[in-house]
Amino acid sequence: MGVDIGEVEECYGKYAPALVRFAATLIGPSDAEDLVAGVMVVLLDSPELSVTDPQNFLYRSVTNAARRQWRATERRIRREALTAPLDRYEHHEFIPEVARALIRLSPQQRAVIHLTYWEDLTPPMVAARLGVGDGTVRRQLARARRRLAEVLDGPA
Fold first, then answer.
1. How far apart are CA 143 and CA 74, in angstroms?
2. Where are the beta strands (DSSP E) in the chain?
3. Contact (CB, 8 A) for 116 and 126
4. Is the pTM higher than 0.90?
5. CB 33 within 8 A of CB 69
6. Which residues is 2 bridged to in the sheet?
7. How far apart are CA 68 and CA 77, in angstroms?
């Protein structure tokens, strides 16, 4: 027996807009809604859950789903790079500087950046939301800031 559909609908209605924005930071806007919907479908199919903090649980679930999707995309890109004719492959998509810098961050670092700067959460709040330690959040935030500075400022 799965989770109560009414509870999932209520959670979806309450948290979906923020979760979609969060997912867009992690994997891009084109797949964000699908990722959040996929998390909800998995939630419906899962056995009875005892979740004390649904908001943090959903953020962790979206983060984990984004990580899986990111790894799958990276594997696909590597496979395609091995078989694509180099003289015919062109990337026509325009990517602004900041977006290009954010793409170079890991999903965990993007999650920490999003929650810290777009949702204005403190490191302990981010840690609770992602289900990791406070030190992990601070370390990932420092690494992300350093990486962004390297990419945006260029070599010194």
1. 21
2. none
3. yes
4. no
5. no
6. 47
7. 14
